[in-house]
Amino acid sequence: MTRASVVGAGMTTFGVHESTLAELFATAALDAYDDAGVGPDDVDAFYFGNAMGGQTENDTHLAPKLASEVGIAGVPAQRFEDACATSATAFKNAVQAVEAGIHDTVLVGGVERCTPETGLGTGEMTRIFASASHRQYEQPTGLTFPGVFALLTKRHMHEYGTTEEQLAHVAVKNHANGQRNPRAHFGRELTVEDVLESPVVADPFHLMDCCPFSDGASALVVTSDERADSYDDPVDVTGVGHATDIVPLSAKPVPHATQAARDAAAGAYEQADVTADAMDFAEVHDCFTGAEVMASEAIGFFEDGEGGPAAAEGRSALDGDRPINPSGGLKAKGHPIGATGAAQIVELTEQLRGDAGDRQVEGAERAVAHNLGGDAGTTVVSVVEVRS
Amino acid sequence: MSLSYDEWAASLREGTLLGVTCADCGTTYGTPFSVCNECGGRDLDATDLPEDGEVYSVTTVNVPPVGFEGPYQVALVQVGPARVTARIADDDEVDIGDGVVLDGAMEADDGHPAPVFRRA
Ligand SMILES: [Zn+2]
Fold first, then answer.
1. ω before A248 within 30° of 0 (cis)?
2. CA distance A59 to A258
3. Res B108: pLDDT
4. Residues lying with their CB under 5 A of ligand 1, a single-atom ion
5. Thiolase N-terminal domain: from which residue to which, for each copy (chain A) (predicted)?
């Protein structure tokens, strides 16, 4: 059943941007307006994601500021914050509002600046990212975000024999896909040796196992199932699952299972009345290579323990049987925190329209997005389909 | 009355790692919660966790946040029925499955303590 439809999608390049948060967001939002063929008068509400603007740029109460920037001052506007799952949560709420008949057409998206353009260095930004870990029971140990995913991944390696080489294959694959994405932060020929020879950030992760700090914005125009027919190329949102897991990490019964992702995926697939097997590809939250391996199992693309071997065998490559992250993922496309979740939906929309150019998954009709936040504390999983 | 964070921290500074055990369902956590996530019970009694533990997972942080100097190891340590997130003592290096023992607390520059374990 269609819950809502995406009729406009836009995003900036992900990388380094000098423009203000508002101008950066406007670039994506105007793209989405133009793609949908709408103007500010058609937008009834604004669901907006930004995770860290208060800490990075002393900039808060951003929803009305950015609404004003894009010509929709006056509409109900609100900011969502769920660490790296920020704009997927905004998207979920937009879909629900449209489905419930509260708003007809909603602008949803996100923006973040994470590069030194904020004036902050690596250590300061690492501390801000780490603010999503538990304040009292994790931050005092000096745990970082690479560290969080390293702890999960190391246990996965212990349980299943997942290897550093298998992890490196994820990076190699996503960089290869990123080369085909003109909006990607990175994308270049990369070998397993290149990854394994790069400096260790938090073992088992080398620098090339980690996504970059990126600036960027993404935006979507979401409208009701009935209204969507009057637009060109709508794609239908048929399932959105959203779950949380216990925080801190130490309280999770099986940390490497990423339970919130399993629960969110089950919810999304059930709403869409499909199984993982029906998905033509996935965009998953590969902030670190190990995160993609765990996500690929949690969303049902591979059996538990098979995510690493599957990556090494090329099964998740663009021409594999279970493509993952055709956009390049966070690893190569980039990870401007609050823009990431909505950008995954931008990729799904373009792929399902057949507009993804060199990175097109041939004949894609149904796809799933997985956006994770914090120390695996939040996950939002969305199923999007070609309008039948 | 549940264990408060301040009580957990004060106890840790004095060398005792406290967890909480749910009086209703028996679940033990390595850190306080106001309500049991298993059963909804509010009667979470402070429990002494054992000093001996086993490394459940561990990583070496080479790129630390502001306020920390790397490299250092952070681990999930299994202590009896619960796990805690902890630092490994500076001169030690441990791997999954290694036996460790509580070695007091460290204090970050924000004044919050973290448990420290050393190789058993
Ligand atoms: Zn209980």
1. yes
2. 32
3. 85
4. B 22, 24-25, 27, 36, 38-39, 41
5. 6-225
Q: Do A136 and B65 touch (CB under 8 A)?
A: no
Contact between residue B77 and residue B110 where contact means Cβ atoms under 8 Å apart: no
**List of chain A residues with pLDDT < 50:** none
Q: How confident is the model at residue B1 (pLDDT cuts 50, 70, 90)?
A: low
Segment B49-79, tens digit of pLDDT: 999 999 999 999 999 999 999 999 999 999 9
Query: Are B61 and A202 spatial neighbours (Cβ–Cβ below 8 Å)?
Result: yes
- CB count, 10 Å around CB of A30? 14
Q: So what's the pLDDT on residue A263?
A: 98
| Beta carbons of B59 and A202 less than 8 Å apart | yes
Residues of B in contact with A130 (CB under 8 A): 65
Return the C-alpha torsion angle A351, A355, A359, A361, nearest 10.
40
Task: With beta carbons less than 8 A apart as the criterion, state whether A336 and A111 touch.
Answer: yes
Q: Could you write out the DSSP letters of every residue in A146-171?
A: HHHHHHHHHHHHHHH---HHHHHHHH
CA–CA separation, A160 vs A23, rounded Å? Answer: 46
